[in-house]
Description:
The protein is an alpha/beta fold. The chain has 13 helices and 18 strands. The protein has helices at 16-21, 83-104, 111-129, 135-171, 189-198, 208-211, 221-232, 260-279, 302-319, 346-355, 381-392, 427-443, 477-489; strands spanning 2-7, 23-25, 34-39, 42-47, 54-61, 65-70, 81-82, 177-181, 201-204, 236-239, 243-244, 285-290, 324-330, 362-368, 371-372, 398-403, 419-420, 447-452. The strands form 4 sheets. An 8-stranded parallel β-barrel has the order 8-9-10-12-13-14-16-18, surrounded by 4 helices. The protein has a 4-stranded mixed beta sheet with strand order 3-4-1-7. Helix 2 runs antiparallel to helix 3, helix 4 (135-171) packs across helix 12 and helix 12 packs parallel to helix 13 (477-489). The longest helix is centred in the first third of the chain and has 37 residues, at 135-171.
Amino acid sequence: xxxxxxxxxxxxxxxxxxxxxxxxxxxxxxxxxxxxxxxxxxxxxxxxxxxxxxxxxxxxxxxxxxxxxxxxxxxxxxxxxxxxxxxxxxxxxxxxxxxxxxxxxxxxxxxxxxxxxxxxxxxxxxxxxxxxxxxxxxxxxxxxxxxxxxxxxxxxxxxxxxxxxxxxxxxxxxxxxxxxxxxxxxxxxxxxxxxxxxxxxxxxxxxxxxxxxxxxxxxxxxxxxxxxxxxxxxxxxxxxxxxxxxxxxxxxxxxxxxxxxxxxxxxxxxxxxxxxxxxxxxxxxxxxxxxxxxxxxxxxxxxxxxxxxxxxxxxxxxxxxxxxxxxxxxxxxxxxxxxxxxxxxxxxxxxxxxxxxxxxxxxxxxxxxxxxxxxxxxxxxxxxxxxxxxxxxxxxxxxxxxxxxxxxxxxxxxxxxxxxxxxxxxxxxxxxxxxxxxxxxxxxxxxxxxxxxxxxxxxxxxxxxxxxxxxxxxxxxxxxxxxxxxxxxxx
Length: 491
């Protein structure tokens, strides 16, 4: 049994919730299953392996809020590591490596990035040689970490600005899908007008539970209206997921006992066939399966989830030979593997389906940022950039499906029992996130679509305060920024 010990100073620097979210992973970026024990001032992580690895943990950084940071590679040893120092060392190493890589590709690195990185390295050296337990050493390590994160944000922002400029010089405005999930009701006139000013595409959710509430009885009215509205206004249509293993998407009449998988497999196949047959020729991209790596319906085995996703793709391709077909993976960093016994990371899952040559043409990454449980831990720009590049190694187009909170308060219409990590989520913070991260997504040639996961907070929705219209039906500042980004960069 492997054991990693880390000291935290001051003892109340993080909360028990942050400590619980910590995990270790190897060079393949796949989390190891671990058991965390936290007492004020010390974090102990046990795991089944004893290999060297990187620790990931949400950490408050001055000027950036709560950010999930990674150490450099740590080996097991009897002496505990000083966590603030190791986080600073890890982030500095990450920034230096990325700077060198992008500079070789022709990036003009701004002088402030180099200056902050030099300052961070100097502060790291001072912290490393100081008395381990002194307040001065901790403060200097925190300074090094803050400077490194500052440098990372400025470096990625420079990359995004220059990469978009190069893409625009080559092809004019970008051909990127820009849309949102329309939800389970037809948009009212006001929201529809705002939507059309902001987006060029839409996800029409074909929720199995809602369309086939009774076995064999299909209610397509809402979907038909949404299809007609999208086609009338020239929106590119993505429909699905056809198979969604979220327990809130599977009809109640599907039995949860007996030979449950074979029955689920047959019933899901019938629904996929009915939906694709009805809407083929109208849908540009089918989202054949959603959240296939995390769906908790019936506690299916990994093998069964693979079979179900493969069947959805195969059947969709057989019935619609022209449309693009993607499947979505929730929590693409796979933090959940640190708490569960699954052995099949989402990237491996996607690779297996692509290698099967079933007709899959792309992948969607669902990132519900800053939510717990069931969401993605907060990540900085550089880590997000690295994760997109990691998934891009599979060689197919990527779509991002996003939600970011605009409040940390309870949400009476949220259907998932999720809270937010950190206490600083506001409409302005949501807008700031959009302003920082969306240009990065436009800069990535692998990203062909960006979709907001929920539009309206004033109707039942999955994640608290994650929409673009608030509980009082008012548009949030993030919506205006999304509209301006479309006008500036997209066809």
